[in-house]
Write a sequence for this structure.
């Protein structure tokens, strides 16, 4: 097994890009393996690593179909519904609470 080429931070040659850089160009890795990696040294921990892919082997991003748009809309709507009161909260329910703010911190009735 051959080792990956390792480049210092900001010193990678042209023709390589990270996943985010590919996405900004409208591309995706397309089943290619990692071609190289970047390492950014840190003082008290191990280096930060970013994986690089070859731009010439990247494929265009698949377009969103009507079915995918529908599924994404349903998933986002489900994140807004409180499991305790079953109401649409009007915002995405925080995972840390697991329910809307009104259910998590109810206001006690005043006598």
């Amino acid at each position: 097994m051959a080792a990956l080429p390792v480049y210092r931070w900001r010193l990678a040659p042209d023709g390589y890009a990270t996943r985010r850089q590919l996405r900004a160009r409208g591309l995706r890795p397309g089943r290619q393996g990692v071609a190289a990696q970047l390492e950014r040294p840190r003082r008290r921990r191990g280096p930060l690593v970013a994986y690089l892919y070859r731009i010439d082997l990247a494929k265009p991003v698949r377009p969103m179909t009507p079915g995918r748009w529908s599924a994404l809309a349903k998933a986002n709507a489900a994140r807004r519904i409180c499991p305790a009161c079953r109401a649409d909260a009007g915002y995405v329910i925080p995972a840390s609470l697991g329910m809307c703010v009104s259910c998590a911190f109810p206001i006690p009735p005043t006598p």
